């Protein structure tokens, strides 16, 4: 897109501008500080836990250059409201992995025990002071909050800590933006970013409207924000149209597959579970494998021939995560429809993860959300080479249709493959025909899509006894 394009909006500039206008508004307001009692502060302090060993450094600078990351020093904060401390720590570990995937260096991580997040600053005001000290001591330039914060919360925390504050959703959107390669992927991410941005602009716009109402006039800030909002809406409409056009091409391809009754298998699962590694094992597709979250954004589909000679497709898909931002689910709908439209989902689980059951739950939630809840599912528990055997055994016992394997060592892959191929929809129509040699195309179609029971070459053609799908049976009967 050319820089002259009125729709080419630089989100950072826009955000900065909106933040400035919002800050002006806030400064004009009577700053009623939200003080809590000392007792609460004491409780806050006692509830504060630091997670040791979470700060890690990027090991490979060339990797960072390749992805053109903005190397930021970040401090993570989380509010632990329910569940065990282990759950809270796992959540922070994941946030840390997300931050590192986005190219940041994690300086420190804090969790605060509270009944609920503070409505004005997410963490309690006592903690805010402490956070500010940690930020200063570590030289951090960004604070990342584990959760989705309201625009007002982000703003007041930012003002108090004096560095940029972002939430988990913004972080995930940032990773997606960095990893999107295809035109469709980029458009989908941009749409998700704008959907995220729009209510945040509205928040500021509303504040300004209230201000404008008070003095009975329209401030220049409001006009600016309304223009921005209109431009974003225009851009979003344009993106949606583009995505729709690309969806047509995708649908055509899928219809083609359906028409030929080629079974399709989707590899889905939590991010970093080893979906692409399995895809590569099974097809040699050479999909990028990386110990990073959301390494794969664009689906890769390969034609595979089963051991009994039938053809099906195998697709590697984008990974899921807990609380996957709904803007992303919405924007990636056309990509995710691939999963919903498949005959079988191979749900890859990282057996070596601290809480694989929680990952299974989170993935199933997204699978249901995209309307794929009824698709047949195989649970494929990966990384058997490093997972605890007890955890693997427990998962295998609890999940009826489950298999253990290791994409790295190849352990269990054959059994898993046999289970996948055994679950493919079976051709149902039995035929017994002699096909003239001029119709070699039909003979190969029966080989690819059907199941040969017997085959014999006669002088008048190929005599075949086979099971085929309805469409192929129709084509063959038309021949007679
Ligand atoms: N030890 C071990 N590591 C594995 C195994 N399979 C995959 N990995 C590693 O797990 C990491 C993630 O693998 P990927 O195949 O990229 O995972 P993915 O599910 O495609 O991840 P995203 O595309 O990022 O959602 C990589 O570092 C792999 O090398 C395995 O069987 N054993
Ligand atoms: Mg992948």
TrEMBL record:
Alphabetical keyword list: Coiled coil, Cytoplasm, GTP-binding, Magnesium, Metal-binding, Nucleotide-binding
One Pfam family this sequence matches: MMR_HSR1
Ranges of residues in domain Hflx-type G: 263-428
Main localisation: cytoplasm
GO CC entries: cytoplasm
GO terms assigned for molecular function: GTP binding; metal ion binding; ribosome binding
Localization in the cell: Cytoplasm
Signal peptide: none
Record-linked InterPro entries: G_HFLX_dom, GTP-bd, GTP-bd_M, GTPase_HflX, GTPase_HflX_N, GTPase_HflX_N_sf, P-loop_NTPase
Keyword Magnesium: yes
Coiled-coil ranges (or none): 11-45, 222-256
Xref: SUPFAM superfamilies: P-loop containing nucleoside triphosphate hydrolases
HAMAP family noted in UniProt: GTPase_HflX (MF_00900)
NCBIfam families noted in UniProt: GTP_HflX
PANTHER family the UniProt entry points to: GTP-BINDING PROTEIN 6-RELATED, GTP-BINDING PROTEIN HFLX
Record protein name field: Unannotated protein
């Amino acid at each position: 897109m050319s820089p002259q394009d009125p729709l080419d909006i630089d989100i950072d500039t826009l955000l900065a501008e909106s933040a400035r206008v919002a800050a002006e508004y806030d400064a004009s307001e009577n700053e009623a500080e939200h003080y809590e009692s000392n007792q609460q502060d004491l409780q806050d302090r006692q509830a504060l836990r630091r997670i040791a060993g979470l700060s890690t450094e990027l090991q490979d600078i060339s990797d960072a250059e390749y992805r053109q990351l903005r190397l930021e020093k970040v401090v993570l904060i989380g509010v632990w409201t329910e569940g065990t401390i282990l759950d809270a720590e796992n959540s922070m570990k994941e946030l840390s992995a997300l931050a590192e995937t986005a190219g940041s260096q994690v300086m420190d991580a804090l969790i605060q025990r509270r009944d609920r997040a503070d409505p004005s600053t997410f963490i309690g005001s006592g903690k805010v002071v402490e956070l500010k000290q940690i930020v200063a001591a570590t030289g951090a330039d960004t604070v990342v909050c584990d959760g989705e914060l309201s625009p007002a919360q982000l703003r007041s925390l930012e003002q108090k800590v004096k560095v940029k504050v972002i939430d988990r959703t913004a972080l995930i959107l940032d990773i997606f933006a960095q990893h999107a390669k295809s035109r469709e992927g980029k458009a989908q991410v941009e749409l998700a970013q704008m959907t995220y941005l729009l209510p945040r602009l509205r928040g500021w716009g509303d504040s300004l409207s209230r201000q404008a109402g008070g003095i009975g006039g329209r401030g220049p800030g409001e006009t600016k924000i309304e223009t921005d909002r209109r431009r974003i809406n225009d851009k979003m409409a344009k993106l949606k149209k583009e995505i729709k056009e690309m969806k047509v091409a995708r649908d055509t391809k899928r219809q083609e597959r359906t028409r030929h009754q080629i079974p399709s298998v989707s590899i889905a699962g939590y991010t970093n579970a080893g979906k692409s590694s399995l895809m590569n094992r099974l097809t040699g597709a050479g999909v990028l494998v990386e110990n990073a979250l959301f390494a794969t954004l664009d689906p890769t589909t390969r034609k595979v021939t089963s051991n009994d000679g039938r053809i099906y497709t195998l697709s590697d898909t984008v990974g899921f995560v807990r609380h996957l931002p709904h803007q992303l689910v919405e924007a990636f709908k056309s990509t995710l429809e691939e999963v919903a439209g498949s005959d079988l989902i191979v749900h890859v689980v990282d057996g070596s993860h601290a809480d694989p059951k929680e990952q299974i739950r989170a993935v199933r939630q997204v699978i249901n959300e995209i309307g794929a809840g009824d698709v047949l599912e195989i649970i494929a528990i990966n990384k058997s080479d490093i997972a605890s055997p007890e955890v693997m055994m427990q998962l295998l016992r609890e999940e009826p249709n489950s298999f253990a394997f290791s994409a790295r060592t190849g352990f269990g892959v054959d059994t898993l493959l046999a289970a996948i191929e055994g679950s493919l929809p079976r051709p149902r129509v039995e035929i017994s025909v002699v096909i003239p040699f001029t119709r070699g195309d039909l003979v190969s179609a029966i080989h690819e899509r059907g199941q040969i029971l017997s085959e014999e070459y006669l002088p008048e053609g190929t005599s075949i006894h086979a099971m085929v799908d309805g469409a192929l049976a129709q084509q063959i009967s038309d021949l007679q």
